[in-house]
Amino acid sequence: MIDFELEADLELVQQTAQEFAGHHLRPELRSHEAARSVAEAARAAFDEIGFAGLELPEAQGGSGLGALARCLVLEELGAGDPGAALALDPLGPALYPLLELGGENALAELGGPLLRQPGARAVLVWNGPGGRSHLERRGDRVHGRVPWVPADRVDLLVVLDEAGAFAVAEGVACEELRGAGLRAAGASALTLDAARVCGEWRDPAGARRALARARLYVAALLLGLTRESAEYSRRYALERVAFGKPIAHHQALAFLIADMASAVDCARVLVWDAAWRLDLGEEATEPCASAFIEAAEQAMFVTPNGVQILGGHGFMQDYPVEKFMREGRALSLLLGGVDCARELAGQELAATRGRVALNLEGLA
Amino acid sequence: MRLGIDAATLERLEGVRALGETWIRPVGLEADRLGRPTPPEHAFFEQLVKSGQGRTRWSGEEGAPDKPRPASRVGATRRLLVISEEMSYWDRGVTVSFPGPGLGDPPVTSMGTPEQKRRFLGPFLEPDRPRWGSFAMTEPGAGSDVAAIKTLARRDGDHWILNGAKSFAANASRADWIVVWATVDPSLGRGGHRAFVVERGTPGLGDFVVERKMGLKAYESTSFSLRDCRVPAENLLGGEEHYARRAGFKGAMKAFNATRPLVGVMAVGIGRAALDEALGFAREQDLLGDPRVRDRLERVRRRLRGARLLCWRAAWLADHGRPNMVEASMAKAVAPAVALEAASLGMELLGEVGGRGDHLIEKLFRDVKAMDIVEGTGQILRIVMARHLVQLPRE
Lengths: 364, 395
Known about the structure:
The complex is a heterodimer. Chain A has a domain at 206-350: Up-down Bundle (Butyryl-CoA Dehydrogenase, subunit A, domain 3), CATH 1.20.140.10. In chain A, strands 1, 2, 3, 4, 5, 6 and 7 form a seven-stranded mixed beta sheet that branches. In chain A, strands 8-9 form a two-stranded antiparallel sheet. In chain A, α1 packs parallel to α4 and α7 packs parallel to α9. Chain A is built from twelve helices and ten strands. Chain A has helices at 8-25, 29-35, 40-49, 67-80, 82-88, 95-115, 204-239, 251-279, 285-310, 312-315, 321-331, 337-350; strands at 122-126, 134-138, 141-149, 156-160, 164-168, 172-176, 188-202, 241-242, 245-246, 361-363. The two termini of chain B are 40 Å apart. In chain B, β3 (152-156) and β4 (159-170) form a beta hairpin. The radius of gyration of chain B is 21 Å and the shape is globular. Helix content of chain B is 48%, strand content 14%. Chain B has two domains: 33-71 and 101-252, Butyryl-CoA Dehydrogenase, subunit A, domain 2 (Beta Barrel), CATH 2.40.110; 259-390, Butyryl-CoA Dehydrogenase, subunit A, domain 3 (Up-down Bundle), CATH 1.20.140. Chain B is built from twelve helices and eight strands. In chain B, the strands form two sheets. A four-stranded antiparallel beta sheet of chain B has the order 3-4-8-7, with no helix packed on it. At the A-B interface, α7, α8, α9, α12 and β10 of A face β1, α1, α3, α7 and α8 of B.
């Protein structure tokens, strides 16, 4: 029967991530942004906990946990600082093409070294329809440009499209950008001029699964950031007094705050739904795409209103809400963006015959 | 965590589907076409009672647990939600017209004395024919502001004298009895409220008017008046002691709510019906190649899924007796708006076909609006949420 209770191990993982974000990310959100990197202490704590290996098989030193565990952690890290969360995770969503297409060998060979090298970054780029990257294969060489990635170094570039993926470990030139957001992870344009392909996999089904899981990764970060924006502005609205009462007690804002709370939960239940299906072994490409769209739409409802509630203060960089707004927008541009996910979910729906099932049905 | 419908509930859903296809939807369309509630003597109601519907959840004996009895009571609210959503998918109006004590069942079960339960719910244990109970709180001048009801109750010897008017009571004109809420003193607010079981034929109970509605025509929403209506003292629900006892708990609100997610998920059922119809129509008309069409259908499916999960979550909390006022209100605030979007999109895809006024989606579009009004309007729910989220003061 329908049950929202988190199992004890998941609750522990969630709590650990929450404490980590509260201690190492949230208080340093501006300093990490300015430094375009994360403090050593945060990195050490992150490695000590073993967040990077959350979904890795136990044989490879990982925790062997699933998508739901990952989403719970990313919500907390996203609520702390999504840029720092990306900076700290050496593989990030690039894990999924390696795992789904390359398998454990590719993961060990290409991902393994990054896990042992502090500050190393794998970067995933969507090179299919909807994306703005133009990377072209000529034999075993790659040419082209990527307009933006949230990274200042690329130790492994994983390029995903509808047919499969390939990887590049050398010859990726990074040109530093200011970046619209997520600056704690860095911001670069990439140029590849005859860079050598070091791994290649053709498997459209695997590519679909990899993209789905990558989308869910970003959706969970968006969810965390959206929650923090709603929560920060809610607390502010209780302290700020105008016309003789806390602004939260003016009905226009009271209703907005209620709607922002609903928006966060709408995103969360879809993220959980997709993660839960993945952990059951479902392909869940549509639920993952839907979770991403919902998280992005709700982020773009909540985070500008977070700024609005703080008024003039909200526009100033003394407060974090402007950062949530910029980064909500920036995160949802990744992986081909919202329209690319909409296309997948819409096509899947258009192919549905008869009744539309909203959730999984028919479990024991 | 599990976010799917289990096999056992799915099996029960099959039964609802069969009933929905053969009876619920056709009866709903018939009522809508004829512009009248389904009459009490309709064969459908006979059929329902024969198949075991139309009964009270009261167990029939004091001290025994109330129904539903089968298997376990664990997950009762969640199961009820899944079943109710499917009923509502076929026709929300018809499900409200189902025989049985209706909204009168919970107050009589929870507040009634053993004697009152026997008298008023006894006939609903094994009903000989379709019977209805009813519930009347809303008045012409008091909807969401329940504390403002004006129907007066005055003690007169062995009787209470009721004077006032009630609105929008479901199934009231066909009911064996109506649970009528009145006040002994309007200045006391909720503290002055009393519930009476007013039986059919009581002198002074009359002026029944079956209202004309935009949608949900299959059940009667009835207004009536009480003019020096003499109700025997033994029909005061729970007896005097009940209200004396309750005065001690004044202001103490129940920590959880199970009806809001239930109404929310009924909206999801209507929205799902609209989505299925719209998708079928769009395919027939070859519209699915248009990304503008797909995008909006996708949004509706996604938002319905989210709304349903919010309802399920609130019900899960209720099943565990955990506080859920924010979650229950949120589910009920979100779902009706999403369902309206589904029906409205359906109309848009129908185009001029929707303008004809004879398409199922057009009916759903009218039906669904009520869901944002009954059991707490969207605005009231936001106020409830804000009381918890930002301690919004009561005026």
